[in-house]
Design goal:
This protein is α/β, with parallel strands linked by helices. Helix content is 41%, strand content 12%. The protein has 37 helices and 29 strands. The protein has a 13-stranded parallel beta sheet. A seven-stranded mixed beta sheet has the order 4-3-9-5-8-7-6. The chain is globular and about 95 Å long.
Length: 997
């Protein structure tokens, strides 16, 4: 029975508003009490407050029309949800002041009700806080709560600042606020959010919110550790935004795995604080309690920094943690090739890859860097320095947009920071090659930054650039050979002492310990993460210096022998740059020879040799041709991961990529991606060759490649002649929006934009399909009214949208609503009589699917993760549904127990456990079955009874799936996405077993 006679919609809205009030009250409390788990609608205190809110509606509110009544209650909930700790404390104070102004979109009657309801919630919340069960009495907060507050304050201080390369030269300022320096990077993870484009890139924080266990992959300098630091900082401060608001109750633990490479092994939870240098003593069992309660955010940084011989030990340790504490959240980072693609997927991990920065990301980083530099400028010449920085910023933005060599270098945060620093240091005269860039950076760090500021011999030692380089490269090579990224100070001093015997001019200036302190303090290349330990400021500099040492020692056999290891691939590439021409040719020939002898690593070693050519300014033409010929045998690429590997070879691969004719859809799409990742004029020509291809996968890649080339050139060369009849053109920037005037033939758009519906969209009257996506500011859809040709409208991840009434003024037959405000009503669907396809990806007022007023002609219904709490009650209203997606174990159980739609043609089941093939037998008419992140129970043998089944898709399913019972089904094709372990695959010919990234 409901709380009121207003119906389930109002009851749900009242519960949500009461939950927001309860959470605001928790934030208002001093100490760790404000970090309570999120208030849930079923909590007794929340339900009590919701009943009171409903019962005390005034007569005026009762007379409101339902939309106004719901809008007023929802506005109150939003006002409380938006309160930070300081505002919440002020609100619940004795003399709180007026309520926050409601949104202007509310009617006058709804605004009056809003003010009254706000006052009611404030008063009820205050009384609840004074006497509610579980609220600690003044001075009686337990030791664990007090320690949690102390610990999170410490983490917030420790993680709040970051070193920006090129901005740490001042003795007065060694680091910068992370809030100022951080930019959000993109990851591959569109499939996690059920985006229309399966491989569409998404921002990291959006993807993180979709899963609870994440393996984050990225090459050196891509921003993995910075993202870990950002997560720790925001968790400690409870300052995540709306997309990660549930993470605000988590307590972060940052565990750099490089610190646990000793024989002593990896620490138990009670030892985490000591092992990571936190100078606080936790109450007994405190960490374990957080892990068990699901309130721990465990950030494991750098699997690749664990020596290969110890990685199995690390994996076993992590598996034990996951078994003991299944509710905790885990984020693990690694370089791409350090562990297999499907590492830990059986334990529920999803793999995300940090993507190379696109042009807009690069521009944002350059602006952030120069903003920080302008903030650093002070003193008498500050004005002049800021003027120069304005010029440097403008010049660099132009250079990376027009110079092919710089554009290829500026693909990750480290390289962008290097370019910013050198552009400033060299007065806008930048090197052209990667090795020159590193050489210039070392020159700037080791000598020029001190000599130009008249600083020398501060520690009683003066070292030339060559002397510093010799000492540092010996340390770097020792770390690489031993599979480490961190050494004890004692080991470093011992190595320096051994070197000083051959450097009498340095030995005469001081002891090995004095020289070590000089390198640590003055070189700019070393840092001390904890007392008594030392590592390079970035792995890239360790690899660069270690490669130099390897070449000088003529350790080419060592380089080739280890070339298959992920920790050595950068070293090998840089060694080719350091080597003399004859040494370079020998090294590459040995790489190819080893590729012939290593079947498992053959492709990897050939591609590494190809990638080395970029670092070879002079090379025997015969060796060049041999590498080129061997690379050509790996073409065409067939997947995004193969495209990424090929692109590392640089421009060489552009000459080898095949012509469009005869390529399959996957091959053509991967060829476009390869060229786009390489970039440049020649790459644009390759992409343009596919502009007339209308296959979905190809058009999707043409859309995604737009951001990797100069806008006007891409419009003229590719999009002007691209039909784009199957995929959407993804529009992300204001410049791309303005370019739509030149593309009137493209009528399928996917717009990622913050703000109202753009004029370039609302002014079009010929659009056929439109998706508005990830718009944090969009509230009003009415500018889309009257679009005569629009057949599909999608509104995804737009949390401020106030209503979908606009659908009644459109002629759409397909609608998709995902990640919207949970109290939104789907009642306007009654005005769409021709609706045939519907996606619901949030919790609407209608909690029973049968209460959704979609017309009888519905043939396709998809319930995404956000709608997993809806029930399937009443789904039999649409007997014509042929394609169905269900999410969560509850919907799956209803589907197999009540059997409402046995005529289904296509079924997708997401995030359900356990799923039984035998339980699906009543749906024997299925031609397509998709299982995503499901745990299977029993075998797949029952699927042999599905005579019409033609395609089975398994994506990140848990455990090992035995495919052998399906081998006799000659017309069945099985698609396997990474993260699904299978047995029996050898029984299937290649055309019946398709593996996807």
């Amino acid at each position: 029975m409901g709380m009121t006679d207003f119906g389930a919609g109002f009851d749900a809205a009242a519960l949500r508003t009461a939950g927001a009030v309860a959470l605001a009250l928790a934030r208002s409390r001093p100490g760790a009490a404000r970090r309570l788990r999120p208030a849930k609608p079923g909590d007794p205190a929340v339900r009590r407050l919701a009943h009171e809110l409903a019962a005390r509606l005034t007569g005026a509110a009762r007379e409101l029309a339902e939309p106004d009544r719901l809008a007023a209650v929802a506005a109150v909930g939003e006002a409380f949800a938006a309160l930070g700790p300081r505002e919440a404390r002020a609100l619940f104070a004795a003399d709180p002041g007026p309520a926050p102004a409601p949104e202007a979109s509310l009617s006058p009657a709804a605004r009056a009700a809003y003010r009254e309801l706000f006052a009611l919630c404030r008063a009820a919340g205050g009384s609840e806080g004074a006497g509610s069960e579980g609220t600690p009495a003044p001075g009686a907060a337990d030791a664990a709560a007090r320690f949690e507050e102390e610990y999170t304050r410490y983490v917030a201080r420790a993680q709040a600042r970051i070193q920006l390369f090129g901005l740490t030269f001042s003795q007065a300022r060694q680091d910068w606020p992370l809030d100022l320096a951080y930019i959000s990077l993109a990851v591959s993870g569109g499939q996690l959010l059920e985006d229309p484009g399966l491989q569409a890139p998404v921002k990291a924080e959006v993807a993180l919110n979709a899963v609870e266990r994440i393996l984050l992959r990225g090459p050196a300098g891509s921003g993995k550790s910075t993202l870990v630091q950002w997560l720790a900082l925001n968790a400690a401060r409870s300052s995540f935004g709306p997309r990660l608001r549930d993470w605000n109750t988590l307590v972060p633990f940052v565990l750099p795995l490089r610190s646990f490479n000793s024989p002593a092994g990896l620490p138990l939870p009670e030892d985490w604080l000591t092992a990571t240098g936190v100078p606080l003593t936790a109450p007994e069992g405190w960490v374990a309690q957080l892990l068990s309660a699901g309130r721990a955010l465990v950030l494991l940084d750098g699997v690749d920094e664990v020596p290969p011989r110890l990685r199995s030990r690390t994996e076993s340790w992590l598996r034990e943690l996951l078994t003991a504490y299944p509710a905790a959240r885990f984020v693990v980072t690694t370089r791409p090739s350090a562990v297999p693609e499907d590492w830990l997927t059986a334990q529920g991990f999803s793999s995300l890859a940090l993507l190379p920065m696109e042009r807009d990301d690069v521009g944002a980083f350059i602006t952030h860097w120069h903003d920080s530099a302008r903030a650093e400028a002070d003193g008498e010449g500050a004005g002049r320095e800021r003027e120069l920085l304005d010029r440097y910023e403008k010049a660099l933005l132009q250079a990376v947009g027009t110079r092919r060599d710089l554009g290829r270098l500026a693909t990750n945060p480290l390289m962008c920071a290097l370019l910013c620093a050198l552009n400033r240091d060299r007065r806008m005269h930048l090197p052209r090659a990667r090795k020159e860039l590193y050489d210039a950076a070392l020159d700037m760090l080791l000598i020029r930054r001190d000599s130009e500021r008249d600083i020398s011999g501060v520690e009683g030692v003066y070292l030339s650039r060559d002397e510093q380089t010799l000492l540092l490269q010996r340390l770097a090579y020792w770390l690489i050979r031993n599979g480490q990224v961190e050494a004890s100070a004692e080991e470093a001093i011992r190595m320096i002492a051994e070197s000083l015997d051959a450097m009498p001019q340095v030995k005469a200036q001081g002891s090995a310990q004095t020289v070590f302190r000089h390198l640590l303090i003055r070189s700019g290349l070393l840092r001390e993460p904890v007392p008594g330990s030392v590592l390079f400021v970035h792995r890239t500099f360790q690899d660069y210096l270690g490669a130099k040492a390897a070449v000088e020692a003529r350790d080419f056999g060592v380089l080739v022998r280890n070339a298959h290891e992920d920790t050595w691939d950068n070293v090998v590439r840089m060694a080719v740059g350091h080597a003399r021409p004859d040494e370079r040719a020998y090294l590459l020939r040995q790489l190819l020879k080893r590729a012939d002898q290593s079947e498992g690593d053959r492709s990897r070693l050939v591609l590494l040799a190809a990638a080395c050519l970029e670092h070879a300014p002079e090379l025997d033409p015969e060796v060049w041709r041999e590498v080129e010929a061997r690379t050509a045998r790996l073409l065409p690429p067939r997947s995004p991961s193969q495209a990424g590997e090929l692109a590392k070879a640089g421009e060489l691969v552009l000459e080898l990529l095949p012509e469009p004719a005869g390529l399959t859809e996957d091959e053509a799409a991967a060829t476009i991606r390869t060229a786009a990742l390489v970039g440049g004029d020649r790459a644009l020509q390759v992409v343009a060759g596919f502009r007339a291809d209308e296959r979905y996968g190809v058009e999707r890649e043409l859309s995604d490649a737009w951001g990797r080339f100069p806008l006007d050139a891409y419009v003229d060369s590719v999009l002007a002649d691209a039909p784009m009849r199957t995929a959407h053109l993804h529009v992300r920037t204001a410049e791309q929006l303005r370019a739509l005037d030149r593309l009137p033939h493209i009528r399928r758009l996917h717009v990622t934009w913050d703000g109202p519906v753009p004029r370039e969209i609302s002014g079009r009257r010929d659009l056929e399909s439109l998706t508005m996506h990830r718009n944090a500011l969009l509230s009003d859809l009415s500018p889309l009214a009257g679009q005569p040709s629009l057949r599909h409208l999608g509104v995804l991840d737009c949390p401020k949208v106030t209503g979908i009434e606009v659908v009644g003024e459109l002629e759409t037959d397909s609608l998709a609503f995902g990640y919207l405000r949970d109290d939104l009503s789907l009642a306007p669907l009654a005005g769409v009589p021709g609706l045939r396809s519907l996606v619901i990806g949030f919790e609407p007022q209608e909690r029973r699917i049968g209460d959704v007023p979609a017309g009888p002609g519905l043939t396709s219904l998809h319930l995404w993760q956000g709608a997993r709490r809806m029930t399937l009650d009443g789904i039999e209203r649409w007997p014509g549904v042929e394609t169905l997606t269900v999410a969560g174990s509850g919907q799956y159980r209803q589907l197999v127990r009540s059997l409402p739609l046995t005529g289904l043609d296509s079924l997708r089941i997401r995030h359900a456990a356990p799923v039984s093939a035998a339980a699906l037998l009543p749906y024997e008419r299925l031609t397509r079955l998709v299982l995503i992140r499901c745990a299977l129970e029993g075998t797949l043998e029952a699927l042999r009874e599905f005579r019409a089944l033609r395609r089975l898709v398994l994506n990140e399913c848990l455990g090992t799936v035995d495919l052998s019972p399906l081998a006799p089904l000659e017309e069945l094709v099985i698609e396997l996405y990474r993260g699904t372990h299978v047995s029996g695959a050898g029984l299937f010919p290649p055309e019946r077993l398709v593996r996807r990234d």
